[in-house]
Design goal:
The chain folds into two domains: 113 residues, Up-down Bundle (Methane Monooxygenase Hydroxylase, Chain G, domain 1); 54 residues. The chain has eight helices and no strands. The protein is elongated and about 65 Å long.
């Protein structure tokens, strides 16, 4: 009985990591589309969303099947509970990649606004947080997961700075408000990717340590 459960848990971990790799690639494609104003690549991200959604459903069904058939307890139950939440966050990250791609498809048809926004830095940090949260999951590395959580404020600050700059540019270029709002929303989607990466990291901490780190000030050095 235990051997069958372990086999299914190993397969579950493999499948959620496969979903993570799929989502990470979608984010990479969406960011590249934004950097290059590539509407064609952006639409590939949109069209591929169905694959992410299907994989997310399959992982959830797998979790429910294990719960029903094996009634796991202790560490195994904690693992499945964390996977259910991580699975949901990964699907949401996929949605944010699609949202970015849809905005890129829109702005790629319009002349750019030449304003020194920190999108490249923000995209790099959000993408790195997602990668590190998944690496923490692969290796059950609580230290790396804590480090991901601590970096979320950096992305939040850049997002706020971009908001402030766009607000000022709208005053001087009101005819470009549609384009600028798309840029603002792209920043928001990148910030949400960082939030979901933080959620994944917190679930890794829960897996490893058995404690829920959300709202714990010591996790964030407060």
């Amino acid at each position: 009985m235990r051997r069958h459960l372990q086999r299914e848990l190993d397969n579950l971990k493999k499948n959620v990591l496969s979903l993570g790799a799929m989502v990470e690639e979608r984010v990479r494609m969406a960011i590249k589309a934004f950097e290059n104003r590539d509407g064609e690549l952006a639409m590939k991200v949109v069209d591929a969303d169905r694959e992410v959604n299907q994989a997310e459903v399959e992982v959830e069904e797998e979790c429910l099947k294990i719960l029903a058939l094996h009634q796991p307890v202790a560490v195994d139950l904690r693992f499945i509970n964390a996977v259910i939440k991580i699975n949901n966050d990964l699907e949401r990250v996929g949605d944010e990649a699609v949202n970015i791609a849809e905005r890129v498809s829109n702005i790629s048809k319009r002349p750019p606004v030449n304003v020194p926004f920190e999108y490249a830095t923000m995209a790099e940090k959000s993408e790195a947080m997602l990668k590190d949260s998944l690496d923490a999951l692969v290796n059950l590395d609580a230290d790396l997961a804590y480090a991901v959580c601590l970096r979320d404020d950096e992305v939040d600050k850049i997002n706020q700075d971009i908001y402030d700059k766009i607000k000022e540019v709208i005053k001087t270029q009101p005819d470009r408000v549609g384009y600028l709002i798309n840029l603002l929303l792209i920043a928001r989607h990148l910030e949400r990717i960082a939030d979901h990466a933080t959620n994944i990291a917190e679930e890794v901490i829960y897996m490893v340590e058995g404690e829920i780190p959300r709202h714990r000030n010591d996790v964030y050095g407060l």
